[in-house]
């Protein structure tokens, strides 16, 4: 019996030690990289665009636990250095991925908990126009991760998921 407890405790300790102590960006993107470095890392031919003074570069969509997400890298006005990575999914629209829906939020939440450990905060509230808003966040010394679900409660299966990585 004592051996089983020790094995369980060792397994828990090993699982906890596998969680990152810090996160310095997302995937190949590191905070402070130039957009040219990001383009080279992902072999992107497209040039960054400017919107609301931000420099934005769209990467190829990615799949996390089977959920397809768009990816956009952003640099603050005037810096030229990466300061955000946004992943997103819209559901319930004519151009949404077939099968996309609010359930993808839970799938992504589970995948992120496996990767980053328990979230620092979770919240559910009601927004304007009969929308439910769920947020889950992780905080590391170099990075904050915020995942948000906004879903209509009046129109079935209409909403979006945003996953935002930002430096602290």
Give, in order, the helices and strands: HEEHEEEEHEEEE
Whole-number total of structural domains: 1
Give a quick account of the main beta sheet: strands, pairing sense, barrel closure: 8 strands, antiparallel
Strand order of the largest sheet: 3-4-5-6-10-9-8-7
Radius of gyration: 18 Å
Mean pLDDT score: 90
Structural class: alpha+beta
Give the oligomer, counting copies of the same chain as homo and different chains as hetero: single chain
User: How many separate helices?
Assistant: 3
The rounded distance between the terminal residues' Cα atoms is 45 Å
Low-confidence stretches: 6-15
| Count of distinct strands | 10
**What portion of the residues fall into strands of 2 or more residues?**
35-45%
- The shape is globular
Helix content estimate: 10-25%
Describe this structure in words.
This protein has 168 residues and is of the alpha+beta class. The chain has one domain. The chain is built from 3 helices and 10 strands; from the N terminus they run H-E-E-H-E-E-E-E-H-E-E-E-E. The strands form 2 sheets. Strands 3-4-5-6-10-9-8-7 form an 8-stranded antiparallel sheet, with helices on both faces. Strand 1 and strand 2 form a beta hairpin. It is globular and about 45 Å long.
Give the helix/strand layout.
Blueprint: H1 2-17, E1 25-26, E2 29-30, H2 35-42, E3 49-51, E4 54-64, E5 67-75, E6 82-91, H3 103-116, E7 121-126, E8 131-139, E9 143-152, E10 159-167
Antiparallel strand pairs: 1-2, 3-4, 4-5, 5-6, 6-10, 7-8, 8-9, 9-10
């Amino acid at each position: 019996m004592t051996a089983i407890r020790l094995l369980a405790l060792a397994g828990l300790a090993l699982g906890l030690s596998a969680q990152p102590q810090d996160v310095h960006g997302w995937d190949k993107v590191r905070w402070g990289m130039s957009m040219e470095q990001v383009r080279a890392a992902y072999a992107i031919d497209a040039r960054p665009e400017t919107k609301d003074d931000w420099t934005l570069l769209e990467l190829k969509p990615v799949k996390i636990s089977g959920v397809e997400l768009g990816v956009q890298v952003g640099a603050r006005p005037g810096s030229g250095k990466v300061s955000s990575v946004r992943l997103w999914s819209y559901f319930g629209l004519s151009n949404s991925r077939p099968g996309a829906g609010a359930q993808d939020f839970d799938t992504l939440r589970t995948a992120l908990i496996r990767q980053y450990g328990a979230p620092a905060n979770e919240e559910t509230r009601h927004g304007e126009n009969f929308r439910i808003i769920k947020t889950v966040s992780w905080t590391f010394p170099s990075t904050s991760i915020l995942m948000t679900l906004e879903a209509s409660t009046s129109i079935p299966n209409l909403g979006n998921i945003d996953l935002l990585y930002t430096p602290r």
